[in-house]
Specification:
Blueprint lengths: L1 H46 L3 E9 L4 E9 L11 E10 L9 E16 L6 H14 L12 E3 L1 E12 L6 E11 L11 H20 L5 H17 L2 H10 L1 H15 L8 H14 L1
Parallel strand pairs: 4-5, 4-6
Antiparallel strand pairs: 1-2, 2-3, 3-4, 6-7
């Protein structure tokens, strides 16, 4: 009788372990498509355009995530193949937070970012994207638009940035940056941020870096318009978002942060004059 009971217990244990293995395998197979869909949905929601990713590989027990080919479409009416397309993201998760909320990222590096800024008669694709980001920052989203766990990130590196400016009635201009480095990306957000919030912080910072590099090479009208749009977007962001613009944008980014802060504090009602002087000053130096 005891032997029968032992055999029965053994079979039960083996059966339970088998079920757990099958459940774990099923969950493992679902992780990649769920995580991929979450990134696509979050980025697309923030930018207001369709966003897709070629590949995502989550290795939970190694604490690694590899993403490739994140691409955001242009707003309607623009002809370039995309607004942006990424290379490969290399992300390292803090092992103690893999199954927690928020998830802490120890390492976040993007290898390659291709950006198209397309100028039309009345506006550019970038101005529409910034307008969408302002709407995202100020609107109350439906509860199901921010699914998934939050993220905490200290440092972000974006390497090999190439921005193509397709100008109206002028030859195109290409701006390249070897690296954009951002520190304390989610500092002060104890609960972390959603993917959509992260995208809403990173895109204006990238634009600030590109515009700083493009001073003296891009047309004054386009520079002024995009800088004003960036200032209006910065005014809707929290302190951390404005700090990232300042970090990435060099002298231009620092001016944007300072003047927006003064504007929000009621010190000035005209936060653009010194920015325009800065843009024209760089052009005069190059002449």
């Amino acid at each position: 009788m005891k032997k029968v009971i032992r055999n029965l217990r053994r079979r039960i244990v083996v059966g339970v372990v088998g079920v757990l293995i099958l459940l774990a395998a099923g969950a493992w197979m679902l992780i990649n498509p769920i995580a991929k869909a979450g990134v696509e949905r979050g980025a697309g929601y923030a930018l207001g355009v369709e966003t897709k990713m070629d590949r995502m590989n989550v290795q939970l027990f190694r604490g690694q995530v590899v993403m490739d080919g994140l691409q955001s479409a242009n707003p309607e009416g623009f002809e370039t193949p995309h607004f942006f397309r990424s290379g490969q993201f290399d992300v390292k998760l803090h092992t103690g937070s893999v199954f927690s909320d928020p998830v802490e990222l120890d390492h976040f590096v993007l290898h390659g970012l291709d950006l198209n800024v397309e100028q039309k008669l009345t506006q550019s694709n970038m101005s529409i994207i910034l307008e969408n980001l302002r709407r995202f920052e100020t609107a109350d989203p439906p509860p199901d638009e921010k699914p998934g766990r939050r993220l905490k990130i200290n440092r972000v590196e974006i390497r090999d940035v190439v921005a193509h400016f397709h100008l109206l009635g002028a030859p195109p201009v290409t701006i390249t940056l070897p690296v954009i480095e951002l520190e304390d990306v989610t500092l002060g957000d104890d609960k972390g941020v959603h993917v959509s919030d992260l995208v809403a912080r990173l895109v204006p910072a990238v634009l600030a870096a590109v515009l700083e590099e493009g001073r003296g090479r891009l047309p004054t009208e386009l520079m002024t318009d995009l800088t004003e749009q960036l200032q209006e977007t910065a005014a809707t962001m929290g302190d951390r978002g404005r700090e990232l613009i300042s970090q990435a944008g060099g002298e231009l980014g620092r001016r944007i942060e300072e003047e927006v802060e003064e504007f929000l504090e009621g010190v000035t009602d005209e936060p653009r004059r010194r920015i325009e002087d800065l843009i024209r000053g760089r052009e005069e130096d190059n002449d």
